[in-house]
Design goal:
Blueprint: E1 2-5, E2 22-23, E3 30-37, E4 40-52, E5 55-58, H1 60-71, E6 75-81, E7 87-98, E8 103-104, E9 109-110, E10 114-118, E11 129-130, E12 142-147, E13 163-172, E14 176-180, E15 196-201, E16 204-216, E17 229-234, H2 239-245, E18 328-329
Parallel strand pairs: 7-18, 11-16
Antiparallel strand pairs: 1-16, 2-13, 3-4, 3-6, 4-5, 5-10, 6-7, 7-10, 8-9, 12-13, 12-15, 13-14, 14-17, 15-16, 16-17
Length: 331
């Protein structure tokens, strides 16, 4: 079977998104990682989830890409909104914290989880809670994925827009939860890396997985080929790693909790990210960017696939002055 990570390191390409889903303005805390240079945002290349004050949860291969972009002189930011054209707020990523056991080789993907520390955080943005229950308790629930990736792998189109899709939970390993649509209509794709796999539990949305990879029987289309499925790093398996770096007591001010129950009688419906107007408390002035051993994926070809940062000659989206600090990695 053919597999790929959901983000890529190549330049001058459009980023690909969720397949078979729909656009959404909900789940405000699931944002996009962007590449910028000299005050201009060029494109998104991965997704991420705001889980605590100044902390974004994402995939390790996204942070690996961010470090390479940074070393090339680009700034890395985390932005929230509905699309690159309707961003609400951004903040600069200043530290990259990659799981120490991460391996992102083409034949051995392990511990694909990481954190980004933001310079100031985003005022009024409510973090999403983390799941601590084993997937053995999930039953037949769907996983609600949220990401900013492409919708067509072969065309490489549709990226830079937030989308959501519900896909049946299928199985799990010691590191990943696996989802599979038997009708081959729904999946993740490039650029959705680092986004959130969510389930409704305890009266709130909880992040159960961090979007990591897709695979299918079709080498030409790992996102939508026959038997296409997706894998997301299990949050419950990495809760100790997360809590080692994250102070969950430092809550953002003026946040509104995400506690609205989804309508189970309608298909593809999701609650508003906040119980009141999701943009009401969001700081929208200048959106300038300021910084467990487990099973490997056996016999699967893994390709780096974050949707890429375009070259400086690509289309430009100027949203504000970016700070010049480079992202740094904590060993």
């Amino acid at each position: 079977m053919f597999s790929m990570l959901l983000s890529s390191l190549a330049f001058a390409q459009d980023a690909p998104p969720i397949i078979g889903g729909e656009t959404t303005s909900d789940f405000l805390a699931v944002g996009t990682l962007v590449v910028a240079y000299d005050g201009t945002i060029y494109d998104s290349f991965c997704s991420g989830t705001y889980i605590a004050s100044r902390v974004v949860l994402t995939a390790a291969h996204c942070n690996e890409a961010a470090l390479e972009f940074s070393e090339s002189g680009y700034d890395i930011g985390f932005c929230v909104g509905s699309s690159l054209n309707t961003l609400e707020a951004c903040d600069l990523a200043v530290y990259s914290i990659i799981h120490p056991g991460y391996t992102g080789s083409e034949t051995d993907l392990q511990n694909d989880i990481a954190l980004l520390e933001l310079e100031a955080g985003i005022t009024g943005l409510a973090p999403i809670a983390l799941n601590t229950d084993s997937p053995s308790t999930f039953g037949t629930q769907d996983v609600t994925y949220v990401g900013w990736g492409i919708t067509d792998y072969q065309q490489g189109t549709g990226g830079g827009v937030k989308r959501t899709v519900d896909i049946p939970f299928d199985s799990y390993t010691s590191q990943f939860i696996i989802t599979y649509d038997p009708n081959n209509q729904k999946n993740l794709c490039s650029g959705d890396s680092g986004g959130a796999g969510l389930m409704w539990d305890n009266g709130q949305w909880e992040v159960v997985g961090v979007n990591s990879f897709v695979r299918s029987a079709d080498r030409n289309d790992p996102c939508a080929g026959d038997f296409a499925e997706a894998g997301a790093a299990r949050v419950d398996a990495y809760i100790d790693f997360i809590e080692e770096y994250v102070d969950f007591s430092e809550a953002p001010e003026d946040e509104t909790p995400d506690d609205q129950r989804p309508d189970e009688e309608e298909e593809q419906t999701v609650p508003d990210e906040e119980t009141e107007d999701p943009d009401e408390d969001l700081e929208t002035g200048d959106t300038g960017l300021d910084e467990g051993p487990a099973d490997a994926l056996d016999e699967r070809e893994l390709l780096l696939g974050c949707a890429a940062a375009p070259s400086q000659t690509g289309s430009l989206l100027v949203i504000g002055l970016l700070a010049g600090a480079l992202i740094r990695r904590r060993d």
